[in-house]
Specification:
The structure is a single chain. This protein is α/β, with parallel strands linked by helices. It contains eleven helices and eight strands. The protein has a single domain, classed as TIM Barrel, CATH 3.20.20. Strands 1-2-3-4-5-6-7-8 form an eight-stranded parallel barrel, surrounded by seven helices. Helix 6 links the parallel strand 5 and strand 6. Helix 1 runs parallel beside helix 3, helix 6 packs parallel to helix 8 and helix 8 packs parallel to helix 9. The structure holds SN-glycerol-3-phosphate. SN-glycerol-3-phosphate (G3P) binds next to helix 7.
Length: 218
């Protein structure tokens, strides 16, 4: 059976996480150093707060650049909660750290992925998630969606089980295209989550139904 597309929220803001969790369809959370810095909070405290609200995978990113210090940071983060996923950059040291952690059955999210060979390598290293940043590719005149398509094909060609987590989502059309291409997960800012259930014709149609209902002859 094909698993349903998963929806994560891309934020470290507790109000947004609580609001998204209340929808009943939130599967996980992704954070990054910029999102944590924006909140002005202690990193470990905030990760603990998020993991208490969301039972699905919650990604926390290391800031070290070398394998050994990445692993030391990961070991500290793993004390926080069982659903914490270690986010590592798609660099040579990130790849090695991914392999080290995967061999210990620790789930990883390989971030800042911009080309299919990075995705191939991290899948070989046992990554749980790979995060192609499609919005940032679009920002420089590229085609972020082509990257999702390429990774989907490569993974399907070889049966890699690493989940494609479409990241850097900027608008609802990105989500539509990701779903059509078979991205396993999308991590989405609150602004776009709010847009997902909105259509002006739904509002207009409902307004018409209620106007007719209220004007009916009793
Ligand atoms: O968290 C990773 C990614 O989703 C960041 O998105 O909008 O900063 O490119 P953005």
């Amino acid at each position: 059976m094909i698993p349903p597309m998963e929806l994560y929220i891309d934020t470290a803001n507790m109000d947004e996480i609580n609001e998204a969790a209340a929808l009943g369809v939130l599967d996980g959370v992704t954070t990054n150093p910029s999102l944590i810095a924006k909140e002005g909070v202690d990193f470990h405290t905030r990760m603990s707060e998020i993991c208490a609200v969301v039972s699905g995978p919650v990604s926390g990113e290391v800031v070290s650049l070398e394998h050994d210090s990445m692993i030391a940071e990961a070991n500290d983060l793993l004390q926080i909660a069982d659903n914490l996923v270690i986010k590592l950059p798609c660099t040579v040291d990130g790849l090695k750290a991914c392999k080290t952690l995967s061999d210990r059955n620790v789930r990883t999210n390989l971030t800042l992925c911009f080309q299919p060979l990075q995705a191939l390598m991290v899948a070989k290293a046992g990554a749980f998630l790979v995060s192609p940043f499609l919005g940032r590719i679009d920002d420089i005149g590229g085609d972020g969606m082509e990257l999702i398509q390429q990774i989907r094909t490569v993974y399907d060609n070889y049966g890699f089980t690493t989940k494609i987590l479409a990241a850097s989502i900027r608008h609802p059309l990105h989500l539509v295209q990701c779903a059509l291409l078979g991205a396993d997960v999308a991590t989405v800012p609150m602004k776009v989550i709010k847009q997902m259930m909105h259509h002006p014709l739904t509002d207009k149609g409902l307004e018409g139904f209620l106007a007719d209902w209220n004007a009916r002859k009793q």
